[in-house]
Design a protein that fits this description.
The complex is a heterodimer of chains A (454) and B (194).
Chain A (H helix, E strand, L loop, with lengths): L11 E4 L3 H13 L3 E7 L12 E6 L10 H10 L4 E3 L9 H9 L3 E2 L4 H8 L1 H10 L15 H11 L3 E5 L9 E3 L5 H16 L4 E5 L5 E9 L5 E13 L2 E7 L6 H17 L4 E9 L5 E7 L6 H8 L3 H9 L16 E8 L1 E2 L5 E2 L2 E2 L2 E3 L7 E5 L6 E2 L6 E9 L2 H14 L1 E3 L5 H8 L2 H4 L14
Parallel strand pairs in A: 1-2, 1-4, 2-3, 4-5
Antiparallel strand pairs in A: 6-7, 6-8, 9-10, 9-12, 10-11, 11-14, 12-13, 14-21, 15-16, 17-20, 18-22, 19-21
Chain B lengths: L5 E2 L1 E5 L2 E5 L4 E5 L6 E3 L3 E7 L2 E6 L5 E7 L7 E3 L4 E6 L11 E4 L5 E5 L4 E4 L15 E3 L2 E8 L2 E7 L7 E7 L6 E2 L4 E6 L4
Parallel strand pairs in B: 1-7
Antiparallel strand pairs in B: 2-3, 3-10, 4-6, 4-9, 5-8, 6-7, 8-10, 11-12, 12-19, 13-15, 13-18, 14-17, 15-16, 17-19
The chains are: A alpha+beta (454), B mainly beta (194).
């Protein structure tokens, strides 16, 4: 932690997000003596995390008229005299037009420059930059595909199965698997149609499908002057339908050599593209033990506390300081990695019923553990109503331990004492995973949740 | 830039209809307190990053603007759902009520009395200045207050044969919101020409 040297430029910071991340950002604002102003929707106007805070109602509960309404958000920031904008994650966090709009109206966007964000949002230029910096890629097309015939040629060269992906995609949409040549045409057409509908861009690229891999990511931090450090890696392989459920650091499945090589290359690549702020590179660990670059997320990640617990660095503070023009205060050698950290995302979903959404009133909430090595990040309390309009994240529980087993044991203990009555949550699933042999022995991959039949 | 206007959403509070801000932004009103508004009329605009959109009174709403957000300010930062104006649907009569006056026992002093029973208001709305204050000179035809009778606001107009064309207000007897009965003195006046 940097301590409490004041941030020179910002007195008031606008939070263009809701729920857990909004509460998280405000916590760091408090430490830095910055007044946070929350932009909220009608559905959230009475949320408990806004008590005693400044807030502005942007529009109705529908996100397109509130949390996704870039013009309303920037107007609200200007009229409440905020000079910085934190977008959180999701919503407009990786929208270069929103970032530009902020800058055009004198509000500093906390994130990378819009041009860099634009480049990262389009997948194939980002991959070319990463390859030039020495990162390995998943074999596939060199840029976007001209047509299905070219897709056939590339697929023949890489070998089936292959994955067709949207050039402007994200969130698992616009993706189709083709297991053999004869299914390629149909997969191409349907991926193209979905991409066009979802992102307004029907262009596709192709990658060899890596099955049974692990999802590894690297946390990076860069200032405006070309200084970059990595804050280690995270293993986010416990997933269901491309949604992360459990994240941890370090990733013990990596060899020391592969880890060191990739971390160094990730830092070089971050420098090369002129990245600024906190960012995350996502990789797939293939069966040969090699990390292959997938994409870079130009924002704070949901699972950032895992890294904070291991390094003691407040990533939101780092984002704000870097955005204010401060230089990175640490070199790579100053970053210390201690022990092991594991995070569970607790969602308002019923894991025994196909993870069906479970909005409603939390009648009784108790975070439980007062263990200093356990951190609970949340925006809820007893009586809070989980609205049906937004995502299902209720809280995150992060435990630190001297080693992986100690962290997992602490985490399980914390989950057992947590109370969240009135709605269904994923706590039972997390307890099952944490006590499963597959998870404890680290023998699983992204295809199935270890220790949980669903 | 040309943009469609917003038809305003309405929240009913008793006899009052609040017209609600459709977005965060800067409200630039074009109607003042006390004015009559009706469906289809614009009450001003909302500005979001420099883009102005007209704000239109929806069908079924008509009445007197009893309150306006920001008082007399011309650019008011608002959030979604704020009541921009409150429209009192109690109808406003445009014809003034018959007034009455009588000389008081004090001899030199005159009083302007309530022409009927009702609730007295000395100002068009709580945040606006009074129609008349002590020391003001009143003239025939001038509005000196409102009297709410059966949900109808009646203007109290200073006039009548028993009252001089000009007079000076010495005292205002009822307070805002006080109930008065017919014949109760409202203003004590001095008719002496100064």
């Amino acid at each position: 932690m940097l301590g409490c040297a004041p941030v020179k430029r910002f007195r008031r910071l606008f939070i263009a997000n809701r729920g857990e991340v909004a509460a998280r950002i405000a916590k760091t604002c408090d430490i830095l003596s910055i007044t946070p102003v929350f932009g909220v929707s009608e559905a959230d106007r009475a949320a408990p995390y806004l008590r005693g805070r400044e807030s502005v109602v942007l529009g109705p509960s529908r996100s397109s008229e509130s949390y996704l309404a870039a013009d309303r958000i920037v107007q609200a920031a200007v009229q409440t005299q905020c000079t910085a904008m934190h977008p959180g994650w999701g919503f407009l966090a990786e929208n270069p037009l929103f970032a530009s709009l902020c800058e055009a109206h004198g509000v500093t966007f906390i994130g990378p420059p819009p041009a860099v964000m634009q480049e990262l949002g389009r997948k194939t230029p980002a991959k070319a930059a990463m390859a030039a910096a020495g990162l390995k890629l998943i074999p596939g097309s060199d840029g976007v595909l001209r047509d299905v015939a070219q897709a056939g040629e590339v697929a023949a060269a890489t070998g089936f199965p292959v994955l067709l992906k949207a050039e402007s995609g994200g969130g698992g949409r616009g993706m189709r698997v083709a297991r053999e040549a004869k299914s390629l045409k149909e997969a191409y057409a349907s991926a193209q149609a979905e991409s066009q509908a979802a992102f307004g861009d029907g262009r596709l690229y192709l990658e060899k499908l890596i099955e049974g891999g692990r999802h590894i990511e690297i946390q990076l931090l860069a200032d405006k002057y070309g200084n970059v450090v990595h804050l280690g890696e995270r293993d986010c392989s416990v997933q269901r339908k491309h949604q992360k459920l459990i994240e941890e650091s370090p990733a013990l499945v990596l060899t020391d050599a592969e880890r060191a090589h990739t971390l160094a290359a990730a830092v070089r690549a971050t420098q090369a593209i002129g990245y600024v702020g906190a960012g995350t590179m996502e990789f797939l660990l293939d069966q040969g033990g090699e990390l292959r670059f997938m994409e870079m997320n130009a924002r704070l990640q949901v699972e950032h506390p895992v890294t904070e617990m291991r390094t003691g660095i407040d990533l939101v503070e780092a984002q704000i300081r870097v955005a204010a023009g401060e230089r990175l205060w640490l070199s790579q050698d100053d970053v210390e990695f201690r022990g092991h950290a594991v995070e569970c995302r607790i969602n308002a979903e019923d894991p025994t019923n196909g993870f069906a959404p479970s909005p409603g009133v939390i009648e009784k909430w108790e975070a439980g553990s007062d263990d200093k090595s356990v951190r609970v990040d949340t925006h809820v309390e007893s009586g809070y109503e989980v609205p049906p309009h937004y995502d299902s994240l209720v809280c995150k529980v992060i435990a630190w331990g001297e080693d992986r087993d100690a962290a997992c044991d602490r985490l399980a203990e914390a989950l057992r004492t947590m109370r969240c009555d009135g709605i269904s949550t994923t706590i039972p699933m997390h307890l099952a995973v944490l006590s499963s042999k597959e998870f404890r022995e680290n023998r699983y991959d992204t295809r199935a949740v270890p220790g949980w039949e669903s | 830039m040309s943009h469609h206007g917003y038809i305003l959403r309405v929240r009913a509070v008793g006899d009052t209809r609040e017209l609600l801000a459709p977005s965060v932004g800067i409200f630039t009103p074009s109607v003042a307190q006390g004015e009559i508004v009706s469906a289809g009329q614009s009450i001003g605009a909302i500005e979001v990053l420099g883009v102005r959109r007209a704000l239109v009174v929806p069908d079924g709403v008509a009445g007197r603007v009893a309150q306006r957000i920001g008082g007399t300010r011309t650019r008011v930062p608002v959030q979604y759902g704020d009541a921009l104006i409150a429209v009192s649907t109690a109808s406003v009569t445009d014809t003034s009520t018959p007034t009455a006056a009588r000389a008081t026992e004090a001899g030199t002093s005159l009083s302007f009395v309530a022409p009927m029973s009702g609730r007295f208001y000395g100002r068009p709305s709580p945040s606006e200045p009074a129609f008349v204050s002590v020391g003001d000179r009143v003239t025939h035809g001038q509005t000196v207050g409102l009297l709410e009778v059966m949900k109808t606001f009646n203007r109290l107009v200073y006039q009548g044969d028993e009252l001089p064309t000009h007079a000076t207000v010495e005292r205002i007897l009822p307070k805002d919101g006080d109930d008065v009965v017919r014949g109760d003195p409202i203003l004590l006046l001095d008719s002496a020409e100064s």
